[in-house]
């Protein structure tokens, strides 16, 4: 059954929302008999198109609800997406994706992590190129002056970078073209966690042979990368060594003028 309805102004019915919330709360009870009934009810509800919308509403809109309940709703939604995303109408897909983008601003860490899981599930089902709003929102968060917002964005960005090696060429180049310039700009961020996540993300990209990277890896990029040698954190040095190894494997011709710099990071890694 296709998931379809008018999504422009989705407003849950109070009695149906109460039933979903009760089910989510019962699912947290360890009693075997209760769990058996919960699973039976879940199988029934999966056949109802509006169920995914109620789960999404609990996850993204019910900010006064307990975080465990909201997150559980998101995890069930993730499973539904994984199993039946192809049955969602285009309108339903747009709605789910729009709500996930909205929820990237979630302040509760548990809920935000669950939103990231739902986003990853969607990205496993369709092209990142078909979700430009997600990339726009992530770029906006990467440029935030709040460190926790930047770190939160990287939880999704790193997954995109890691998976990009398995994307179709068009999607891979899109991810590189939109994300790589922002990543380079964060290599010298004041927060060490941001610097590390940034360099790790760059390394995922450097393991890819790409027409975009053939053009992008220039003296400006390499100078920025080698500035990481001055970082006081050993984890950054270790990550830089990995970056240099990846560059040697795929883009050695770009490094001719930088060979003397290799001794520093390689020596520090020993």
Automatic annotation (TrEMBL):
Q: Which GO cellular component term is one of those annotated?
A: cytoplasm
Give the residues annotated as coiled coil.
Answer: none
Domain Importin N-terminal residues, every copy: 38-106
**Superkingdom, natural source:** Eukaryota
Q: Per its UniProt record, what InterPro entries does this chain match?
A: ARM-like (IPR011989), ARM-type_fold (IPR016024), Importin-beta_N (IPR001494), Importin_beta (IPR040122)
**Which Gene Ontology terms describe the biological processes this protein takes part in?**
protein import into nucleus
Q: Which UniProt keywords apply?
A: Cytoplasm, Protein transport, Repeat, Transport
Q: Name one Pfam family in it.
A: IBN_N
- Gene Ontology MF, one: small GTPase binding
> Which SUPFAM superfamilies does the record associate with it?
ARM repeat (SSF48371)
- Give compartment(s): Cytoplasm
Main subcellular localisation: cytoplasm
**PANTHER family associated with the record:** IMPORTIN BETA
Provide the protein name.
Importin-beta protein
């Amino acid at each position: 059954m296709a998931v379809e309805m008018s999504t422009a102004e989705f407003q849950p019915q109070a009695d149906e929302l109460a039933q979903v919330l009760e089910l989510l709360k019962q699912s947290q009870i360890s009693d075997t008999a209760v769990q058996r009934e919960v699973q039976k009810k879940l199988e029934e509800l999966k056949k109802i198109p509006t169920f995914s919308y109620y789960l999404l509403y609990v996850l993204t809109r019910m900010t006064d609800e307990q975080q465990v309940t909201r997150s559980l709703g998101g995890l069930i939604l993730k499973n539904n997406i994984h199993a039946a995303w192809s049955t969602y109408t285009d309108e339903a897909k747009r709605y789910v994706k729009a709500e996930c983008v909205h929820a990237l601003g979630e302040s509760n860490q548990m809920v935000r992590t669950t939103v990231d899981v739902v986003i990853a599930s969607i990205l496993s089902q369709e092209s990142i190129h078909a979700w430009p709003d997600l990339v726009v929102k992530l770029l906006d968060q990467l440029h935030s002056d709040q460190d926790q917002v930047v770190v939160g964005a990287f939880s999704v960005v790193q997954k995109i970078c890691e998976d990009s090696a398995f994307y179709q060429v068009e999607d891979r180049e899109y991810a590189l073209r939109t994300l790589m310039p922002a990543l380079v700009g964060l290599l010298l961020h004041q927060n060490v966690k941001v610097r590390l996540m940034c360099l790790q993300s760059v390394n995922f990209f450097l393991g890819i042979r790409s027409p975009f990277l053939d053009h992008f890896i220039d003296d400006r990029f390499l100078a920025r990368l080698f500035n990481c040698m001055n970082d006081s954190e050993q984890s950054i040095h270790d990550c830089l060594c990995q970056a240099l190894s990846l560059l040697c494997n795929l883009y050695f011709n770009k490094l001719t003028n930088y060979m003397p710099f290799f001794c520093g990071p390689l020596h520090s890694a020993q």
